[in-house]
Amino acid sequence: MPPTFTLLQLQRSVEALAGWLVHIYAFACKLR
User: Fold this and answer.
1) What is the DSSP string of the chain?
2) Which domain of life is it from (predicted)?
């Protein structure tokens, strides 16, 4: 069974992770 994890899926997952981290960082800055 060949891997179905394509470059597009990797890019989307990285963008989702980056957006989540930025959201958490901005929320933490608001609390300070």
Assistant:
1) ------HHHHHHHHHHHHHHHHHHHHHHHHH-
2) Bacteria
Phi, psi at residue 19, to the nearest 5°?
-65, -40
In our burial notation (b when 16+ CB lie closer than 10 A, e otherwise), range 15-27 reads: eeeeeeeeeeeee
Q: Tokens 């990285």, residue?
A: 14
Sequence letter at residue 2: P
| pLDDT per residue rounded down to tens, the chain (32 residues) | 666 778 889 999 999 999 999 999 999 999 98
